[in-house]
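Revision sheet: structure tokens.
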Amino acid sequence: MVEKHEGRETVTILFLCVLWYIVSSSNNVVGKLLLSEFPYPMTVTMVQLTSITILSGPFFSLWGVRKSSAEISWRYYFRLIVPLALGKFLANVFSHVSIWKVPVSYAHTVKATMPIFTVILSRIILREKQTGRVYLSLVPIVGGVAIATLTELSFNFIGLISALASTVAFSLQTIYSKKVLCDTGLHHLRLLFILGRLALIMFLPVWIIYDLKSLIVESLSVNSISYNVLGLLLLDGILNWLQNIVAFSVMSIVTPLTYAVANASKRIFVIAVTLFILGNPVTGLNIFGMTLAITGVFCYNKAKYDQRQEQKKITLLPVYTELSNGSATLQGNGWSSDKHRLLAV
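Predicted:
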């Protein structure tokens, strides 16, 4: 029975990972095709947020995704939830600008720098210290991205800055999302729904002022918005929502290391698929830079995992403390014992 359960779980994880890779690469290809014909990254973001808002509610109710039992104060809401929604919107917009301006393969190579920003921001915000191996693993990431940048045939400065900005925003989201999930007990999919809906409401006036006027003018011109663009917009929104659902589902059933490795492997898959389908020109040195950066991400994930395991061992090690009355306590693993019994053991 145990073997059957483990086998079924393995098949489920493999199925979800394959589905995640396919949906993610499809979303990136559709996004690139869409932005090539329809250069409105903010509108694309708003469509994605609308998809999350419309589809998530009924789906979560049908799937039985639990709600938080804790009350979230307005102060906490404005202090953490609202900034997270702002970060989600900006991260998505910058991400779309990056794949609009540069090839998807290069954008994903730049996004491989996320561990660097995570380490820096964790140090500044959470005062977290990393091991030497973690810092060392960042070297191939920096080197790989630098090589890919210098050899990128379709290089665009705005695309590079946008990819870096989206990576910083996603790093901040990761750090603060963990805090919110721990503080409130929210299900991670519920948090996705809340952030998507809030970002949509917050930036609807901005979109109306910034993009809607241009869209109305374009639709009334000779080059009106085609049904092809509308179809790509709808497909992009659905794929983005599905990618979030599958990614969070994988995250909920595997270890952090497995998820990190699967995510890095997904990035390789996306780069390979987009290179094959979209056919942007690359050199051998460019591919070497991409490979080096992704290898650095794998090394970072392994170093972080080893660091966590060492911290767990330190936490679980018993600490023997002798008291004034001759008795002793054993701290660190929840047990206490008599001095002579400890010595006998």
